[in-house]
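note to self: dont lose this again. the chain is below, predicted strucutre after it. 313 aa total, dont forget to put it in the shared folder this time
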Amino acid sequence: MPSNGDLSGDSCTWSGTGLVTARFAAMASPCELLFDDATPAAVRALGEAMRAEAARIEATWSRYRPDSQLARINRAAGGGAVTVDDETAQLLDYADTCFRLSGGLFDPTCGVLRRIWRFDAATGEPPDQAAVDALLPLIGWQRVSWRRPAITLPAGMELDLGGLGKEYAVDRCLGLARAAGMVHVLVNFGGDLAVAGPRADGGPWQVGCWDDLAGDPAGGPRWELRSGAIATSGSTRRFLMHRGRRYGHILDPRRGRPVEDAPLSVSVAAPTCSQAGLLSTLAMLQGAGAEAFLRAQGVRFRCLRDGGAESAG
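---
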């Protein structure tokens, strides 16, 4: 596609069929904005606003930035309470709801397990049980004192809101599009996506599911989306192989180890990206019961398991 100039160093392209695409990187993910029946100039302005919003969210809750709200909370562990702003309070309220609805499976304090589990290489040694047992006392949202707007972490504990931030950013950016009067828009952050409405001709957006096992999104299943969102959770890219055994990166906070019998990936369609992301993650945490869990929720889904076995609903 011919270039239509830079989006502050990234890209904004015109397809020649009425579709304008803006791209940038945020939250360790490629981000893509698709606008149907819009001018490149309008897309450029809104794309900059969306990029700025994604950067703001990343700066606020990134566990990698020492100046983030999350870092400030974690540094205070074992000390006094930290007062947070309204937006952070809303996210903590949501995390609390997720923890309770999941029976403790979705736990925003299990990030401490990153200290011993490494999934940035295809092969390696899993931690021994003694190392896992040493960290288990530092996991458990029920041990955190959260009384809006103040939060207090016990010594050694930390929060990780990475399971909520990207989907929240997609929903926020979609809100910017709607506020600007644009409804023929698709926002895609690293495969978690949402649409503000149908294509300009009233038809659905055609969304392909990337299958890392096959390595080809074009030949995989396709979703038709006129509204709502799709999010995917899984370990097709982040895992550890040791002595022929595959360890996925999604961890059971009760055991401190990868979820047993979990699918390789779960994709879920829901009204918002935050909802889709939560459901896909909860399904992964169900392990062998992932498909039954999703059918009980009455949502569209796709589960991919080891060996290529696939189920959908």
